[in-house]
Amino acid sequence: METDGVSFEEIKNRIVNLDIADQRRLITEVIPEVWERACADPSCFLKLKELVDSHTWRQYDKMHMSGI
Hints:
Structural class: mainly alpha
Number of domains: 1
Strand content: 5-15%
Shape: extended
Distance between the termini: 48 Å
Order of helices and strands: EEHHH
Helix content: over 70%
């Protein structure tokens, strides 16, 4: 995929290299704008759910299980 002369890989690299504040803005501002169209396919939703569940479990494990 190429958009205005910029490849998907270039866009991905730019996003990965953004500072944390801009990455958060991407998640909170951009993702909601494309969510309905981009995640019409259930596999997209399931992948995002997997990421959220994985992160949630890691946080719980750090707080409650690390001392065991």
